[in-house]
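Open question from group meeting: does this chain pack into something compact, or does most of it stay loose? Before anyone orders reagents, we agreed to write out a predicted structure and look at it together. Recording both the input and the output here so the notebook holds the full record.
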Amino acid sequence: MNVVCVGDCGIDHYLPSGERRFGGITANFARHARDEFPIDDVIQIVSCVGDDDGAAMVLPSLSASGIDCHISKLPGATPVQYIQIEENGEKNFVRYDEGVLREFSFGANERKVVAESDLLVAPVYLQIIDLFDDLMAIETAGLTAVDFADFRQHPDFELLEQHIACIEIGFFGLSVDDTNAIAHIGELAARHENLFVVTLGADGSRVFSGNKRFDCAAVAIDKVVDTTGAGDAYAAAFLAAYCHGGSIEDSMRNGATLAAKVVCNLGSWS
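Structure tokens returned:
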């Protein structure tokens, strides 16, 4: 299987300590995917970094991971996510500087890589909607999975419905209190026969597959240290199982197990 991950890779900057770690939704997913998918599967990443010291953190981490990298180095700053951790371990995204990602566009090589994917995986959030629209216009013969990364803060159902015909699998990080949004996601899954995964933190996860619903409890742990990257880990483990014939229930348990390992440590990598 040829898995192509498209989107952001950058730096997670923790406040107030100033500690910096390699991160980004797409980079996190790709690293976990390399561990979770069979070794014969190809994991590729399409992204960009700046020409600053952030790139010096990102590029070696990816190049040593067994991931095929198509990463443009552009003049400017590597994307940075500023994070504060609450006492209960819950992440708080304080600010996001997309840096060179705002200038990034797909060239002929990147479009060819995307078009040849068996599984295309990408996030979408407020700062990269134009890039996401361009990505969705590239025709592929395989599955497309999208992480609607800021859907709780910006529940853009118009964007979802605009591209729903191109998206087989969607991931949404919400709370059990987001009852209206969850219900609407379920209605869209039934209407369009999509597979939509709603992760709910300590309350587990829910999958809508067409008009069917599946629920999975979170894996119990002693202490949550940092929830950064838990959703990325869940998505990678879920897709690794599901795309190789696993049942929805087994795929959900696979996702929950890896997410539980990630939240026990500071940073998006266990």
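Observations to bring back to the group:
The chain is about 35% helix and 25% strand.
The chain has a mean pLDDT of 96.
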